[in-house]
Structures are given as structure tokens and as C-alpha cells.
UniProtKB/TrEMBL annotation, chain A:
WD repeats lie at residues 10-41, 55-87, 99-131, 143-175, 188-220, 297-333. It comes from the Eukaryota. It comes from Neodiprion lecontei. This is Probable cytosolic iron-sulfur protein assembly protein Ciao1. Belongs to the WD repeat CIA1 family. Key component of the cytosolic iron-sulfur protein assembly (CIA) complex, a multiprotein complex that mediates the incorporation of iron-sulfur cluster into extramitochondrial Fe/S proteins. As a CIA complex component, interacts specifically with CIAO2A or CIAO2B and MMS19 to assist different branches of iron-sulfur protein assembly, depending of its interactors. The complex CIAO1:CIAO2B:MMS19 binds to and facilitates the assembly of most cytosolic-nuclear Fe/S proteins. CIAO1:CIAO2A specifically matures ACO1 and stabilizes IREB2. One of its GO terms (biological process) is iron-sulfur cluster assembly.
Automatic annotation (TrEMBL), chain B:
Signal peptide: none annotated. The keyword Signal does not apply. Gene3D superfamilies: 6.10.250.1280, Fe-S cluster assembly (FSCA). Pfam families: FeS_assembly_P (PF01883). This is MIP18 family protein galla-2. It comes from Neodiprion lecontei. Keywords: Chromosome partition. InterPro entries: FSCA_dom_sf (IPR034904), MIP18 (IPR039796), MIP18-like (IPR002744).
Length: 333, 156
């Protein structure tokens, strides 16, 4: 078994912290919560300190923050139905663009690998795709195929492929078709309750999802002409659930992150515990097996809402909780 | 609120007696665990959204439908809508959740559900009440929180 060592506990937010996101260089961290602020933390002489507090961008809870791949922008999704884009052109972060259009709370925001596409999703059941060019944002598509509240959007690590998770218990995959329309190319059915979050692995051919049904599922992409002989329709990939991790979590699982450096999967659970899973070395790719390598009881004193691996420092993990804290951890074997 | 009452003639139930305070309760050195009676006392006087009656008087909440697990910080409350198509079910459940959220220590995980078999949309209502993100968003809605506060405010 490995262990998760607490490096530092970051206090400052008032009330629940909903989300944490690492800067792509891994040297700073953004967090957000019900106090309507975004805090940016940086490591100074081996201590994490708050560098900036972004307030007055939103009228209600900030549900999620996301750094652009270049690290120059932060997008924030809020219950006030808007998404704010913050940039540092004037020396410090300022909100210069507000994306409006959703009818209800915006739940999630994600940048594509190139940074030229942005996606948002909302309680209004829709997923929006925005094209970014020279600080102008134009809505390229409004996709209404989920039947309920959409909880999470996340782009593929290499391609312009988007995944979304919903209160309707499904995950959907979207791509741009030959006519430049964004279409749903796959629906991933298997969870029996709300899918709260999802994360691609480093290849982008596998996806981990977590749910209110207390399970984690691993999905494998089968492209047209795959060696396993899985049939594909319309020349589109199919995604199959190849592994379900059940019996580990005792409450809803609010977030999941698949580390691109180490392959470790971390989960944030409503039972206050952070758990870490790793694929077994003798695992069959078509029927993989995963083992829990670490469970940290009372990682927080309330629900853990978010976990994210540092994109540069292997084993460094950030978490956020209803207890108002952000924590920095280090995983070791 | 609707102009017409959904359930025009609700059945009334007898209220329980006040809790008897024992010598142990008053002894500051004895650790009092939360029990179902204590949880019941926190929610029995919540007002029904459409009648000038409490949830206890309408038998919407009952002590026997409350489970408390102090060791594992769990509180489970089942409530029974007065009629199977009650459109107020979500609001009643939300009022119970908010009251317990405010009154109990933050270590408790509170589940509020409809008593099985007593409401036409119990699965949908239960799912909504269990979704803390939607509950959080609802509580930022000024109109809704006003209505909930009115339900929770105990009559003197």
C-alpha cells in the first residue's frame, strides 16, 4: 500500500470549496467556492501562500475553475449562469470577458488542448462550445442531447473530442462532423445515478467516470477496425465499460482524476476519504483490473469535492472540501 | 404558492409529549449522543407549506422514521407526503434538510428521503434532495430561501 502525506492545509475560503485546478506548469493552483471568489496559491520557499484573490467576477457560487493550456487565462464557471475569462495582460488577473447564454447555473468549464476551444455545461441540460480567437469568444455550438443537468465537461488530452457527464446517468462524447457541426458520437450507459465527473488517461483512449451510485467505471475506446473485433457503426468509435470499481466508496463520488504522469487514479468522495487506484501490472487491456493502493480516512472533515494531480510534479495531489480547506498531498509507494 | 389547496382536508394526528429531561441530560459531564428523539424535535415544528399545521401534526415526520448513527455521523430521515401527488414534496424535504444543516454539527451526513411507496415521483424527488450541488444552488435563490425560512420558523 502507498501513503498520502499531507504537505499543507490552505485556509482562506469562507465556506465550501468546490474545485481546485493546477496551473499547467504545476507551480500554482487555483481554487474556488461558495464565497464567490477564486484564490490563486503559489509555492514560495516550500510554503504555499495565497497570491491573488479574484472577487467581483461572479454574483453567486463559483463552481469550477480551469487554466488555459498556455497558463495565461483562467475560466470560471458560476451558478450566476455566466463563465468569466480572466487574463493577466494588465499585470494582474482581470476579468475581461464574460460568456453569457446559459439559462441556469454553469457547472463546469474546460479548455481544449490547443486552447482554441472552450466548453461549458449547465443545469439547463446543454453543452456549449466556444471558439476563442484573439480574446474574442464565439459560440460555435449549443448541444442539447442530455436529458438532465450536465455536471462536467472535459476535453480529450490530444484531440478536439469532448466528454460530458450528467444527472441523466450518462456520459456523452462529442466531435465536430464534416459539416462543422458538433454532434454526439457516443453515449456511455452503465452508471445507475448521476455521473459527477470524468477523466481521460494519458492516451485519451480510456476514460474513468465516477458517480452518485458509488462506483468508478473505466471505459475503453474501440476505434473503427480495432483488433479486438468490436463492431463500430457510422465509422465512429464505441466506448465500452471494461471495469467497474464497486464496494470501495460509501457515499457519492464527486470527482476523479487520472494522472497523466503516473497513471494513478484519485477519487474525491462524500465520505471525506481520498482513495487512490492503480492498474494491476498483469492487467488485461480489454478487461483491466485495478487495485486500491491508498485510502486516506478523514482526508477532510467534510465531503471531498475535488481532487487533481499536479501535471508536472509526480504524486503531488490537491484536494478541496466542504470543510473550507484546500490541501496539498504527496503520494508515495 | 398555488391558489387552491392540493389537499383540502388533511388528516390530523396527535402531537407527542415534550421530551422529558432526565438528570443525566442536565449533567454536563455526560456526553449526550444525538438520538432520533432529538432529531425529531428539530423538525417536528416545521410548518407545512400550505396548511397552518406542523409536519408532526400532518404525520409527515415521525420519530420512528428517523435513524441516527452517531458513531458514523449519519442521520437518515424519511418523510411521508400527505398525498401521493403532493407537489410540495421537494420543498418539504428541502426544509427538513436546511433545518438539519443549520442545527446539526457539520460532521453529520444527512439523508432526507420520501418514505418508500408514499409518493408518485419518489425516485426523482429523492435524487434531487440528495444532490448537494442542486441543493446549494437552490439555497442561493432568494425567493426559495424565504419560503423555506417561513416553513422552518417555529410558531411561538
Amino acid at each position: 500500500m502507498g501513503s498520502l502525506e499531507l504537505k499543507q492545509s490552505l485556509s482562506g475560503h469562507k465556506g465550501r470549496v468546490w474545485n481546485v485546478c493546477w496551473h499547467p506548469k504545476g507551480n500554482s493552483l487555483a481554487s474556488c467556492g461558495e464565497d464567490r471568489t477564486i484564490r490563486i496559491w503559489a509555492n514560495e520557499s516550500s510554503k504555499w501562500v495565497v497570491k491573488t484573490i479574484l472577487a467581483e467576477g461572479h454574483q453567486r457560487t463559483v463552481r469550477e475553475v480551469s487554466w488555459s493550456p498556455c497558463g495565461n487565462y483562467i475560466a470560471s464557471a458560476s451558478f450566476d449562469a455566466t463563465t468569466a475569462i480572466w487574463d493577466k495582460k494588465a499585470g494582474q488577473f482581470e476579468c475581461n470577458v464574460t460568456l453569457e447564454g446559459h439559462e441556469h447555473e454553469v457547472k463546469s468549464v474546460s479548455w481544449s488542448r490547443s486552447g482554441q476551444l472552450l466548453s461549458t455545461c449547465s443545469r439547463d441540460k446543454s453543452v456549449w462550445i466556444w471558439e476563442a480567437a484573439d480574446d474574442e469568444y464565439e459560440c460555435a455550438s449549443v448541444i442539447s442531447c442530455h436529458a438532465q443537468d450536465v455536471k462536467k465537461v472535459k476535453w480529450h488530452p490530444h484531440e478536439d473530442t469532448l466528454a460530458s457527464a450528467s444527472y441523466d446517468d450518462t456520459v456523452r462524447i462529442f466531435k465536430e462532423d464534416a459539416y462543422s457541426d458538433w454532434v454526439c458520437t457516443a453515449t456511455l450507459n452503465s452508471h445507475t445515478s448521476t455521473v459527477w465527473s470524468l477523466s481521460f488517461d494519458s492516451t485519451g483512449n480510456r476514460l474513468a467516470t465516477c458517480s452518485d451510485d458509488k462506483t468508478v467505471k473505466i471505459w475503453q475506446e474501440y476505434k473503427p477496425g480495432n483488433e479486438a473485433g468490436i463492431s463500430t457503426e457510422n465509422n465512429e468509435s464505441v466506448w465500452k465499460c471494461c471495469c467497474t470499481l464497486s464496494g470501495y466508496h460509501s457515499r457519492p463520488i464527486y470527482d476523479i482524476d487520472w494522472c497523466k504522469l503516473t497513471g494513478l487514479i484519485a477519487t474525491a468522495c462524500g465520505d471525506d476519504i481520498i482513495r487512490i487506484f492503480r492498474e494491476d501490472t498483469d492487467s488485461n487491456p480489454n478487461q483491466p483490473s485495478f487495485s486500491m493502493v491508498c485510502t486516506t480516512d478523514d482526508a477532510h472533515t467534510q465531503d471531498v469535492n475535488s481532487v487533481q494531480w499536479n501535471p508536472v510534479v509526480p504524486g503531488q495531489l490537491a484536494s478541496a472540501s466542504d470543510d473550507g480547506l484546500v490541501k496539498i498531498w504527496l503520494y508515495s509507494e | 404558492m398555488a391558489d387552491q389547496l392540493e389537499n383540502t382536508n388533511p388528516k390530523l394526528y396527535k402531537k407527542v409529549h415534550e421530551r422529558e429531561i432526565t438528570a443525566e441530560d442536565e449533567d454536563e459531564d455526560v456526553v449526550d449522543d444525538f438520538d432520533s428523539r432529538e432529531i425529531f424535535d428539530l423538525i417536528r415544528n416545521i410548518n407545512d407549506p400550505e396548511h397552518p399545521l406542523t409536519l408532526e401534526e400532518l404525520n409527515v415526520v415521525e420519530q420512528s422514521l428517523i435513524e441516527v448513527d452517531n458513531k458514523h455521523n449519519k442521520v437518515h430521515v424519511k418523510f411521508t407526503p400527505t398525498i401521493p401527488h403532493c407537489s410540495m414534496a421537494t420543498l418539504i424535504g428541502l426544509s427538513i434538510r436546511v433545518q438539519l444543516l443549520r442545527a446539526l454539527p457539520s460532521r453529520f451526513k444527512v439523508n432526507v428521503e420520501i418514505t418508500p411507496g408514499t409518493h408518485a415521483s419518489e425516485t426523482a424527488v429523492n435524487k434531487q434532495l440528495a444532490d448537494k450541488e442542486r441543493v446549494a444552488a437552490a439555497l442561493e435563490n432568494n425567493h426559495l430561501i424565504e419560503v423555506i425560512n417561513q416553513c422552518i420558523a417555529a410558531k411561538m
